[in-house]
Write a structure and sequence with these properties.
- This protein is α/β, with parallel strands linked by helices and about 350 residues long.
- Helices cover about 40% and strands about 20% of the residues.
- The protein folds into two domains: about 140 residues, Nucleotidyltransferase, domain 5 (2-Layer Sandwich); about 170 residues, ATPase, nucleotide binding domain (Nucleotidyltransferase, domain 5).
- The chain is built from nine helices and eleven strands.
- Helix 3 crosses helix 9.
- The protein is globular and about 65 Å long.
- Bound molecules: 5'-O-[(R)-(carboxyoxy)(hydroxy)phosphoryl]adenosine and zinc ion (ZN).
Length: about 350
């Protein structure tokens, strides 16, 4: 039997989770509302909030899991990628905890964590898990990648963004519409009452399986600016249609390359991960495509789409089984690839 405590602090969510033999016992997340007023995450405020949140969040996760500190066999933490100041808080906490309790310290790549959410077992639910190899579309605020997942800890990136991430495109377009950060979930909500074919935006032409979203954001900005010149109330009068149309374009871009990757690799087990995998239109599009094309689709629980420590704990669990530990000299890394 092994019990792993996972810690996530790479951006603006402080989270702790307990996993026992692959089964999730608790997953506590403290969101930081402080960034809303600034239209994006302010790194200095994020690290300060992590410092305030980390101890109560860990205590809550342990209490909710109904275990004692002494029952924990290993502590896993996000080493990167992320904001350095935020990562330092989680890394320092994990080091101190490992030292105090004399248990192994396990470093986790945040991106690997997002992908491995598909292997979190839930206490009350039997969930279907992908088999290796499968394709994962990892779409978050910082990353957009197509990955071949060959084993729990063996992954190959076959396509990625050359500029902005999909989540960033959602957030930046939302900001242009005057919505607060993070705008992705708000676009998702607004789009439900809009017409996705109301406005047309050009998709980028990028080679291979790579993505690009910065041109779309600029095109959206100019489109709005030009229309406001004619009608100062353009955004207010068309908010839902604008949200639906830009969301539709982002999803089309994501799906085009995913379909190409499926064709190239012949792999038909498809998973999605990362914050944007919470998007309802992306989920619906994947499910309907799966029906038509005989794909097997894996959608994460929405709670595990955005940043959380359950994903760090499950990755830590697989590393624990491999005796893959690090020493007290480990340092966080703002940049880290799969
Ligand atoms: O994975 P995540 O929590 O953090 C990173 O590792 O980046 O992803 C956050 C991103 C943000 O850009 C947010 O706007 C986006 O995920 N997001 C969504 C939705 N929920 C979160 N984008 C579109 N639709 C959603 N429902
Ligand atoms: Zn993330």
């Amino acid at each position: 039997m092994s019990i792993i405590l996972g810690i996530e602090s790479s951006c603006d969510d402080t989270s702790a989770a307990i996993i026992k033999d692959g089964v999730l016992l608790s997953n506590t997340i403290a969101n930081q509302d402080v960034h809303k007023a600034y239209g994006g995450v302010v790194p200095e405020l994020a690290s300060r909030a992590h410092q305030q949140n980390i101890v109560p969040v860990v205590e809550h996760a342990i209490k909710k899991a109904n275990i004692a500190k002494k029952d924990i066999d290993g502590i896993a933490f996000t080493r990167g990628p992320g904001l350095l100041g935020s990562l330092i808080v989680g890394t320092s906490f994990a080091k101190g905890f490992a030292l105090a309790r004399n248990i192994p310290l396990i470093e986790v790549n945040h991106l690997q964590g997002h992908i491995l959410v598909h292997f979190i077992k839930l206490l009350k639910e039997e969930n279907k898990m992908p088999e290796f190899p499968f394709l994962c579309l990892l779409v978050s605020g910082g990353h957009s990648q197509i990955v071949i997942v060959k084993d729990y800890l063996e992954m190959e990136v076959i396509g990625q963004t050359i500029d902005d991430a999909a989540g960033e495109a959602f957030d930046k377009c939302a900001k242009i519409l005057g919505l607060p950060y993070p705008g992705g979930p708000l676009i998702d909500k607004l789009a439900k009452s809009g017409n996705k074919h109301a406005f047309k935006f050009t998709k980028p032409r990028i080679k291979n399986l790579d993505y690009s979203f910065s041109g779309l954001k600029t095109a959206f900005l100019y489109f709005i600016r030009d229309n406001i010149k004619e009608n100062p109330d353009f955004i207010t009068a068309n908010k839902a249609d604008l949200a639906a149309s830009i969301q539709y374009t982002i999803i089309e871009i994501l799906m085009d390359k995913l379909k190409k990757a499926i064709k190239q690799t012949g792999i038909k087990q498809i998973a999605i991960s990362g914050g944007v995998s919470a998007n309802s239109e992306l989920r619906d599009t994947l499910v309907s495509n799966a029906k038509n094309n005989n794909w097997d689709v894996f959608l994460p629980n929405k709670e595990f789409s955005t940043d959380n420590a359950a994903m760090i704990a499950i990755t830590g669990y697989f590393k624990y089984l491999n005796n893959d530990f690090v020493g007290q000299d480990v340092t966080p890394l703002a940049r880290l690839s799969l």
